[in-house]
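=== RUN LOG ===
request id: a7f3
mode: sequence -> structure
chains: 1
length: 152
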Amino acid sequence: MDPTKVLMAKLKVYLSAGEAKAAPPLGPLLGQYGINTVQFCKEFNEITEGFFSFFDPSLLLNKTGLNPAFELIVYIYIYDDRKYAFEICKPSTSFLLKLLAQVEKGDPHACKYMLSTQELIKIALFKYPTDKLYSSVLMIKGTARAIGIRII
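=== RESULT ===
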């Protein structure tokens, strides 16, 4: 967010990675602020093209296409000069752990699901690319333990 510009609106939208379209509901929402929706979609899709590339493709799809759980939270900041900026929030660590372990709901007392350290490293590199890898893996390991996933 640029502190020198006047913020007109802050929007919170849910968009699938690499699949933003200028159709409703996004088109009218941005159009009322004078934002070029096609340009926004092009920029968003370029940035999020391979967003979930380290996952097994079979985990990403359901019968109707991309799993709706993979919608990303996107904050769009619209300024008074019709410029915009957007911030993409990554999915939660527990969501990624449950996805890789193929668990719908975690149970801290069961510990019947298992993940390898390699998979924890993948999540750490995805969620925290600039932080220290070792501390990130330890933090993710604690989250896994709390939702009943054992690390092997």
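=== NOTES ===
Strands lie at 7-16, 61-62, 65-66, 71-79, 84-89, 113-115, 149-151.
The chain has six helices and seven strands.
=== END ===
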